[in-house]
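Hey all, sorry for the wall of text incoming. These are the two entities for the joint prediction.
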Amino acid sequence: MALIVQKYGGTSVGDTERMKNVARRCLAAQKAGHDVVVVVSAMSGETNRLLKLVAQITDRPNEREQDVIVATGEQVSIGLVALAIQAQGGEAVSFLGHQVRIVTDSTFSKARIKSIDAQPIRAALAKKQIVVVAGFQGVDETGSVTTLGRGGSDTTGVALAAALNADACEIYTDVDGVYTTDPNVCPAARKLDRITYEEMLELASLGAKVLQIRSVEFAMKYKVPLWVKSSFTEDPGTLVCEEDASMEDVLVRGVAYDRNEAKITVVGVPDQPGAAAKLFGALDAKHIVVDLIVQNLSRDGRTDVTFTVAKADFAKAHDVVKLAAQEVGATGVEVDDTIAKVSIVGVGMRNHSGVAARMFQTLSQEGINIQLISTSEIKTSCVIHTKYTELAVRALHTAFGLDAPPPVKDHPTVSENDALHGQKA
Amino acid sequence: MALIVQKYGGTSVGDTERMKNVARRCLAAQKAGHDVVVVVSAMSGETNRLLKLVAQITDRPNEREQDVIVATGEQVSIGLVALAIQAQGGEAVSFLGHQVRIVTDSTFSKARIKSIDAQPIRAALAKKQIVVVAGFQGVDETGSVTTLGRGGSDTTGVALAAALNADACEIYTDVDGVYTTDPNVCPAARKLDRITYEEMLELASLGAKVLQIRSVEFAMKYKVPLWVKSSFTEDPGTLVCEEDASMEDVLVRGVAYDRNEAKITVVGVPDQPGAAAKLFGALDAKHIVVDLIVQNLSRDGRTDVTFTVAKADFAKAHDVVKLAAQEVGATGVEVDDTIAKVSIVGVGMRNHSGVAARMFQTLSQEGINIQLISTSEIKTSCVIHTKYTELAVRALHTAFGLDAPPPVKDHPTVSENDALHGQKA
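and here's what came out:
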């Protein structure tokens, strides 16, 4: 018998018929002999409906009050899912964030979990009840309602699994697992059986929208085995887990891309201490998150500094940088929002040379010019012109053997040669 | 400076524009020098929307889970109203039932308030914040969310006023006060300046839908002055308060009617101990509430017992009574659902004779046959054929001087000759 935490996203509880389906799955898991804790999101569209009401009142809402409002979406879901389980003959009880003391800091709208009281849940499980917990919400030390930010229900699920020392956390969504790349861009994309936490983190931050990045960090920290599954199929899904020896045999687990960034270059920055600090300090003061930063060796006492920001921050960042560039005595600012970032990710890179070289060669063979390069231990990213995105993704997917046909049983090492990015089930 | 609790019903917070209007009223009260606590209901239609979702899942919902769901309506309202106050430059903070420890019993869907922790509210008022509290909801001793039943927000308002020892509780609704009778039936109906708790209780139970009866009981118990006002006008409304000497000068404060009852007569009940107990015990076992009961002297060892029930319970009650009548050896059962109950209410009846007689005479003059009569200290009710309802109400309204023109200043005793029943503002 195992203790399983199942988390169902907004589309999985999008209407009452789908909630009945969720109830069936919970009961099936219980019938299979497991203790079941279910975390649910708000019905799809509900959080946006509530935010629209807020927007009708004010465009600068107090975040404590906004959290009070949006937390109701999950509250409705837990009640309805508990009722659906009961209507199918099961035993169920719902809990809100404050009822299981999901205590967070007071950073309203993006609070971080500090502790959870597992006792009420254990007591309910001991009574053979299926426990339905509201995702996305908690309370701070003073008892105010907090929310964990978009996708925060994933984090609730993983945090509960950690607090309960659960055997697994299953994240149910409308995709049936993690793919080697976006199947919309690359038809040869294949679902992965397994992926390491580190790889998932790199892929999530690069644009795969399957799992909230914080929930993966949480799962990694507490070694919670994390399954990504579809609530609409019986597919086993993808396991996000700790690295083991066999997983290193694969050089590249997946290919990701991101077209939502823009590039800013500060030209002719005097090569003196403090210039970069001034530049990025000014951006930080405006809460603009910078992704890649590239600075090459200086020539004639001056250097160029290039970085990327989210497109949404582009105009603001440009204004900030123009001023800061004058202050540090740079000669100019150049911008470009027609870029894409393409990345390959895999723990195998750590112990194998030549992976980056093969990436550059592949892009070169397709006639794609590389504008920026950035590398980490298990990831290599290139910034290219946005028009080459699909071409680059497909070429890299093929070059690193990701679109090989499914392996046969007697080639176990090849069987790791698998999956990344969500695909609609 | 006074401490005022204002309660706004569902139509008063029916959309975000109306919430902004509520915010203006709260701020005006604060600007006038008062400490302001606001209790709000769910946006009109919201509770029904939530109950519809429940009905899609099950027709026999667990009431604990249903309460979790419907309590979200008020939660959304408090957040939005707090934001609306802030958007107008005010200071506001919202509180849910569990945050101000509105502790109730565990009778889900119609819980009763046991205690309230006024401390968090006092602390917020000391910081000059307008305090916005969710109506209709509380928590039981185990921390489960409870609701107080339809109209429970009135009770929340009065309970908070009692706990805070407030100077007044103002109930804002879409009617501008309590009327002498239903203006839809009797154009001569006039708004009352004042009415006693006892009169309000008799009138509420007789069909005036202005205030929840429990909130009036609560206000009477703790002597909370209760104002019924419209959130859409500046009319001072009606004060529900303790009786004083001047209020006794008026014989009849108002005329009420109820067309939602049906009459059942058990004919030829043997006049022996236990017959009535068996009859009404059978009805009680099916949770059927009986209103009027009339039994006259027996003749030839047999008597007739007549009672009224809500029309909604009529068919069920008829079935129950047919069986019970056989058991007690009665000769038959007669039913009639074309009845209306017309009542006159006033504390002045206590010390004046002839009020009932004048009622019977008035009905007689109009050719209306009286089927049943029931009296209490401050009320006399007659059951008549439903077709005479309007005629009876208008005749009684005139007979007891209720449609006299507004009094002039130098006739103070006449100025009590006033109001009953809600009128659309």
